Amino acid sequence: MATFIAPAEPGTTTTGLSSHQDPSAHRRGRRGGRRIGSHVLLVILAIYFVIPIWWLFVAATKDTPGLFSSPAFWFDGNFALFENIAGLFAQQGGIYWRWLANSFIYAFAGGIGATILAILAGYGFAKYRFRGRSALFTIILGSVMVPLTALVIPTFILLSQYGIINTPWAVILPSLLSPFGVYLMRVYTQDAVPDEMLEAARIDGAGEIRTFFQVALPLLRPAIVTVLLLSVVGTWNNFFLPLAVLTNEQLLPVTVGLNRWTALSNAGAGGEQVWNLITTGSFISVLPLLLSFLFLQRYWQGGLALGSLK
Amino acid sequence: MTATATITAPAGRAPRERRSKLDARHQRWGWLYVSPFLVVFALFLIFPLFYAFGMSLFTTGLATGTQFSGIGNYVKAFTDPLFLEGLLRVAAFAIVMIPAQLIVALVAALVLDSLVSWLSKASRLLIFAPYAIPVVIGALMWSFLYSPRFGPAGTFFELLGLPAPDFLAAGTVFYSLVNIVTWQWSGYYMIVIYAALRSIDPAIYEAARIDGANGLQTALRIKIPMISSSMVMVITFALIGTLQFFTEPVVLRNIAQGAIDAAYTPNMYAYSLAFSYSQFNYASTIAFSLGILVFAGSFVFLFLTRKQSGLK
Description:
Number of helices of chain B: 15
Structural class of chain B: mainly alpha
Largest sheet of chain A: none
Oligomer: heterodimer
CATH architecture of the domain at 92-303 in chain A: Orthogonal Bundle
CATH superfamily of the largest domain in chain B: MetI-like
CATH class of the largest domain in chain B: Mainly Alpha
CATH topology of the largest domain in chain B: MetI-like fold
CATH topology of the domain at 92-303 in chain A: MetI-like fold
Order of helices and strands of chain A: HHHHHHHHHHHHHHHH
Radius of gyration of chain B: 26 Å
Number of strands of chain B: 2
CATH architecture of the largest domain in chain B: Orthogonal Bundle
CATH class of the domain at 92-303 in chain A: Mainly Alpha
């Protein structure tokens, strides 16, 4: 049990979510020559990690002949980004935008749902002593090691028996499962929500639900953002599950859809070659997450490491 | 905890009533908070797991219908060269890929930790960027870059006067896949390790400096041992991810059918058994066997590293 009183400031609890800018950091890397060497190394690493993304941006501005003929990492004479976007609206009745919308719906429904379940379960495990608590938690912790892809095929068979195969539910419902999220929320709740505060709220006459919403929930905000981010990214990324449970083209998420276009374009003979639409479609589909990570830096930088410091 | 509270009768009457009221509240509300997750857990983890096991005990033949076959499917699986080759292949991926990701992440995190500049902040963001890209899109991008038709390799090696390597040949595609995964995940692991480094008390470095330790010694003898629990977590995640390798080889197979067959990894094999050949019983056997092996593998790893991770 948490024996210390967590400070009101949520950024400074022991779980290490603070951005932690200590002044002595200046002293650490003072020696000049080594600093230059370290910076050169960093720049080389950064180039390696960014160059494929740069390529994707450049490729999105080319038409299909341009993709074959122009230098890979620089623009072609013909700036075709807007034509390509128009092409995405025209191809198969603009199905690409449907795929993108599907991805959003699946990621948010699955991610928000998984986060709500994790907050409730984490709070229950951390703050209530009920029979079977430790046995249950051990099972859930152990299940983090069960590879979720091993469950795809049995899940497919089960869902098809219930007749919800080929519906959005077939992707959303299994995405609600996030044992790791429960683990993170429990660890964080234990330290960030002091028992004394809950007790004080109860003595003041607040019911269990009110105590949860008004006392505990505000203290959990940093962990909630982290779990939400991880589960939205997880569902957005998912490929195996939608590939298995969806066959209706209108329901595909953008990942499966673009892979299908690639397979068709590669098949060559008879198949339509839509390379320019694949590159532009990929580029547009990565923008929302890239931009959210850029603007939400404050939240994920410490948060993604949550749980490893325990 | 709860059991002792209910069984032992306290001396006074009033405290007992209070205690049991408190206890009942804990029972009721505890279960209430946990139950929504438990429903999902039971429906989409426990039940499919048992269902897969159940399916794996039966065989469906065209003439014979569905028959109980006991461990027959498991005997078949563990003597099936396609499954065994896939297992060996993901084991080889684990041996090459996990150290590659770990070294890149660790070096980047250690360098970042020793610098305070806008350049280091920007690099941190850029190295992390691939995490924000879906695995399918990442693999698609690399498959364009590897492709002899679009890729920059031809132009680049022409400048050097060398023949361009074929990234998608049977012998090289393994390393092409290693590169994709390293590119995709190292940044995430770097952030985890970096955050752990930031939580070390800087007074320790000061003490080491006074004792005459240089930067490298501080990194090897102080920083790395102090973040071992994060390293164990990173390796466990990487291990679980690698053994269920699926998305990247499936995407790369679009352009490298010759080098990547349908049974390249155990997960791909299970997928093609189920969806190309409708052998759901045997596919469940493969999926369940893989699940057990991954679980056992990560369990053994966590057991061996329990000292480093602080897990009991």
